[in-house]
Amino acid sequence: MDESGELLTNYKSRINKTFDYIETHLEKSMTLGELAAIANFSKFHFTRIFHAMVGETPFQFITRLRLEKAASLIVTNKKESISQIAYACGFSDTSIFSRNFKSYFKVSPSQFRKEQTNYSNLSQVNRNKNQVEQSSDSYFCSQSQTLKWRTEMNLNESVEVKQLPKMTVAYIRHTGPYQGDEKLFERLWNQLFTWAGPRGLIGGKDFNSLIIYHDDPNVTIEDKLRLSVCITVPETTKVDGEVGKMDLEAANYVIARFKVGPEDFAKAWQWVYGHWFPTSGYQPDDKPCFEMYPEEPKDGKFTVDICVPVKPL
Question: Residue 156 has what pLDDT?
Fold first, then answer.
């Protein structure tokens, strides 16, 4: 890599650190100096650098993430009021939140909830009519001490709710479209494993590979979607260049295992959100969701655990 390439990689790494910080502090007020310090840039140049690399100013980026997070919660957390969601997403004034929300989504928060709920209900009715194989019932597994579900969805192998421990992951991040782009995922994984292999970070009892989805594709435009391909690493691991590091806190997750081809991933995610959640007694919690890969793909099929943080309704 030439000197200009190294400089670009260094800048991307520092901007990614800012992304990680913003994402875990969205409910709090953040200053320009605070964000510049995270990226290790002078606050006098930070905004210009951030805007040039991201296409938004830091506070445009923060506001968009808060609005998109609120939009997802408005649909999935129906028992929480819109004002509660606004405060939880970092808006201290509900009138400002409503004005910004309508400017971004072209409808008010309450109308957005109504329209999305009606669409979801209609879709669920259609699924119930046309896809009888998606029925399920729950039971408590005494062996694992977790709640599990029996399902007849032909791609699904198991569903259970359990706590996952804290994980430290090293990642390569991508921003932009990704659905159906096998070459993109192959490139990102190759890049990460090329970095991890010589450092002895691949394999072992607690090793996992996963893909974290930072944005809801139903509310974020494709060009702004962010994902991170990750491997679990020891907490003390040193990262450099485009490889970043972050922690996933311990939490309760629904873990739905599927055996799918590349064309079936969207269908599996839709089943978790569109069928399992409405009949489970749970709602999504406010933490990252991800795919975890417990084994190597075989014959063009992937075994994948879709992991979504949950809390009771």
Answer: 85
